[in-house]
């Protein structure tokens, strides 16, 4: 196991512990401790599982990273960025014209979800 994998497993475990701490302690300075804790726990578990998958693939002799993977990731990132620029520009224009008093948390959460879903979709689209 390389230093990179050990670091990623450690970061995933730390994120999981931070989320567990937010979830259990429920600090007063956090608006939604269960949501924040869940986000950290989810990120930590996802990072941990992805790293374990890469270690398993490398131990079987599969090539995990090559030029093709990087090129696919670049194309998927570019398309996701283009979509987000259009969505965010439309949202800013809509909020600038109308007098809606919208909370930032749901909007940022929605944009985050759109970012992750569109990147994953484009990544698998270009991978085929």
TrEMBL record:
Keywords linked to the UniProt accession: Membrane, Transmembrane, Transmembrane helix
Keyword tRNA-binding: no
Superkingdom per UniProt: Archaea
Transmembrane segments: 7-25, 31-52, 81-100, 106-126
One Pfam family in the UniProt entry: DUF2178
Protein's name in the database: DUF2178 domain-containing protein
Organism, scientific name: Methanohalophilus mahii (strain ATCC 35705 / DSM 5219 / SLP)
